[in-house]
Structures are given as structure tokens and as C-alpha cells.
Write a structure and sequence with these properties.
This protein is mainly α and 200 residues long. 64% of the residues lie in helices and 0% in strands.
């Protein structure tokens, strides 16, 4: 817990600078939850670069701010959602905005470039480019399995919480770290229990 507090204070200027971009698509909920999963994965993968992973997960979805919410829901969660124009656009915009924020908060060029490389394609690229990328991609997905993730995303997909939790059972294989699937299973079991999904 002490280590996470140190990390939070280290990245606080970035949180503050990006806060207005986190209003889109419930990212002010999604990003803090994903950041917490990223910190867990960093602890379990000591070869990862904590700064790059933490900054990339903080900034990976801020590009949604540039897209109309109706388009996000209609195209970003529609039948061809992973190949929709808005998916690619939010990645490009995320790279642009992350560069502005990281420059303004005085991060070095190598870090800015590494963060941008992860953000660019974090949803649409079929494979991770590095360990850091793999951790960000898993942290991005793991929030789905939480109570909050189910409560938010079931509305996006026009499902009940039970239906969305059932859908998540098929997504353990999408996780790319050694620890990701087990973290997801544990979180989804807790979510099912807390939301009484054995009843409703």
C-alpha cells in the first residue's frame, strides 16, 4: 500500500493535467480501476518499467474525449467495434494528447515516445510489442471483471449484469500476462457474489 501511495504521488501532476479528458466514456471510473490493476501487475512483473506502464494506463483512453459520446456507443460498442473508425481515432488522439500532457508535466522524450507507442494500438493491435505493453493491455481489460466494470459496461452493451458477466466468461483468454486470467477469474467470482447473480 505504501508503494502504491508513492506511485500515486509521483503521477499526480499527470492525473491532474489529464482529468478533463477523463470525463468521456466513464474513463474517470475506468482509468483509476485499471491503474490499480496495473500496479498489481507491476509488482508481479519486476522487469516491467513502472513509469511507462503507469503513465500509459493513465493516459491510454483519454483520446475518447475527442469523440462524440453517441458515436462512441454506436460505433465503439457495435457489431464491428474493434475495427471501427472511432477505435483507431481514440488511439491516435490519445497519442497526441498524451504527448501534450507528458511534455507539460516534464517527462523525458524517451518516456513520452514509449508511452505513445503503447497507446497507439492498445485496442486494435493484435499483439503486444513488449512486457510493458502486455501489462497495460491486461490492466485495461481487468476492470471489466469488477462490480463497477460490469455495472457500467452492461449498459453499453444493452445487457443485464448477469448477461454481461456470462459474456466475460469467454474473455479470460484475451488476457496476455501470466497473472491476468487468474486475477480476472477471482474478480468475476467476487462480482457474481456481490451482485447476487446466482439469483438475478
Amino acid at each position: 500500500m505504501v508503494q502504491q501511495s508513492i506511485r500515486l504521488s509521483r503521477y499526480e501532476p499527470v492525473w491532474r493535467a489529464s482529468e478533463k479528458y477523463m470525463r468521456a466514456r466513464k474513463n474517470d471510473v475506468h482509468i483509476p480501476l485499471s491503474f490499480a490493476f496495473a500496479q498489481t501487475l507491476i509488482e508481479l512483473n519486476p522487469d516491467a518499467d513502472a513509469d511507462i506502464v503507469s503513465l500509459a494506463i493513465l493516459l491510454h483512453d483519454i483520446g475518447w474525449w475527442s469523440i462524440d459520446m453517441a458515436d462512441i456507443i454506436e460505433k465503439g460498442f457495435g457489431p464491428n467495434m474493434m475495427n471501427s473508425d472511432v477505435r483507431f481515432l481514440h488511439e491516435r488522439e490519445g497519442v497526441r494528447l498524451s504527448r501534450e500532457i507528458l511534455t507539460a508535466t516534464r517527462w523525458d522524450e524517451a518516456t513520452i515516445a514509449a508511452v505513445g507507442e503503447i497507446i497507439d494500438g492498445h485496442d486494435t493491435r493484435p499483439f503486444p510489442k513488449s512486457l510493458n505493453d502486455r501489462l497495460v493491455r491486461d490492466a485495461d481489460k481487468l476492470w471489466r471483471f469488477t462490480v463497477t466494470g460490469v455495472a457500467v459496461a452492461c449498459d453499453w452493451f444493452k445487457m443485464t449484469p448477469h448477461q454481461y458477466a456470462d459474456r466475460l466468461e469467454d474473455q479470460f483468454g484475451l488476457l496476455e500476462t501470466a497473472q491476468g486470467p487468474e486475477l480476472a477469474r477471482r474478480e468475476l467470482a467476487r462480482t457474481r457474489q456481490l451482485l447476487m447473480l446466482h439469483v438475478i
